[in-house]
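To: structure desk
From: M.T.
Subject: fold request, one chain
Message: Could you run this one when you get a chance? Sequence is below, nothing fancy, just the single chain.
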Amino acid sequence: MLDNRRNPTKPQQHSTEKVCTAAVALGLALFCGVAIADKPDRDDRGHDRDCPNGLEIALINGRIHTMDASNNVVSAVTMRNGKFVSVGHDAGGAAEAGCKQVINLKGRVAIPGLVDNHNHIVLLGLRPGYHTPLESAANFSDIRATYVDRINHAPVGAFITTIGGFNPVQFTEKRLPNLAELDAIAPANPVYLQVSFIGPSSTNTAGKAFFESKGIVVGADGSIAVFAPTVAALNALRSVQTFDDKKRSTTDAMTYSARLGVTSNFDMGGFLIPGSPNHEDEFVFDGAASWDPYFAYEPLLDLHRQGQMKVRIRVNYLTMDNALNLPILQRRIDNAFREYGDDWLKSAGLGEFITNWPLFGGPPPANYPAAVKKAAERGWIYQQHTLSTTEDNIAISAWEQLNAQIPIAPLHWSIAHAVTITPQDIARLKALGAGVALHGFRYLAGTAAQNGPPYRTIVDSGVKVGAGSDSAQISTLNPWLMLYYMVTGKNSSGELINAGQTLTRQEALRLYTAENGWFTKEEDKLGSIEVGKFADVVVLNDDYFSVPDESLKKLGSVLTVVGGRVVHDAGVLKAQDR
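Reply: Done. Structure tokens follow.
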């Protein structure tokens, strides 16, 4: 545990730390409290008032994989003022007395902070109730362990929810737990589990009473049907959610990210809630991915103002205009500064949609060429969702036409998901200087017929490429599940579904670290452990490079540092002031 002597009033949480350490090892409950080094008294430039030259943290005696261009492995690094100041050795006596902490890793493996190049962490932070990820649960026993831990750290009678991020096929039982089973797990708490965007869902007796009071039909077994009933249940939970609830849940989402070792999240927005006064001619989608995009960021922004960010977030604005004059896109680019913010929270780009889109194929949107031209003229980074070769061709063809007028390469545009992309279309993207953002969401419920993306083909092509999760509706934020899928090709049931497209562990980790800086034009700041780059580092609970394949799914962080600040501490390492 990191030493808290800089603030002797800080309470210790030894019993909680033991629970959390065990939870990380299981890959289950990851929301319980931990002791974290206190935030120092900082001035308006973020400097520690007691340490004018910066508080230093040195990690020594580790196996620190830098993920630099040479894949160097070093034993020590030093961090000060949010950056790495030495790599390969402890910087020594640079800090004033009492302004340095030295942490002996005792041979543990450390890596750069993981970078997820496409997820929906802001939506995850807006989940109503005490949202509890079941990403790593393999059976109902795991659900019990996760929920019991969550209940033990939540207020009495709190509504325990799991909304997206899992699929029943990952459980041995191949179904949702029913009312009686959830009652046995949580006899004193209402519980609600929802699959993906729009269900189906399941609840227990206390939850059933709540939903029925709102006019929602719930089966005797606690089942809530897909589509309208599930959406109504979700909206009933949202209706009693306060702004403070949203701030707490957003903090929970960032805490979960830090525990997993994901230190940077590239958020891709959400869809408009039907009936929103701002929807105009915009495409709307109801369910777990819906929000009011003009107010949804407020809880996160409030936490940022208060200095309570735990991980980095890069905001990408999603628009799905139907109108030819693109009113939503125009308003965004007229009233938002691109690539603007600080190292913790920044307005990055546009995506994952820029117009209404022919999901899974269909004719190209009539306004799409105009939309990409507007984005390019204003210099915006842009990422486009695709799930079929038809969609790949729509985007790439429009980009090729635009490239004759405005070069695409300096804009760092990319295709997202690319589960069926062909070698020919990969070559077209490479010629444009565009990239591919790959997401292993088919780990949860994919099959040999519904697999991808073709990791091996894409990496071997030499195109710009990075990886992420596409969580948290249909995929898991947990990067170790994504990395497991990338290196084994196996889904959550252990079935080989992506044969011939696997990567080495080193290749996969590079896609989740050093290669992702390109997508936000932060190659010189993000993704590797090098002097001058962001001091983001994760100390692992086991050796990613040598554990058996199945043990990859149990990896997690015992210490996460973001910007030279400890944001997660599982209590297994000790620091000494110097």
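Reply (cont.): The first strand starts at residue 56 and ends at 60. Let me know if you need anything else for the meeting.
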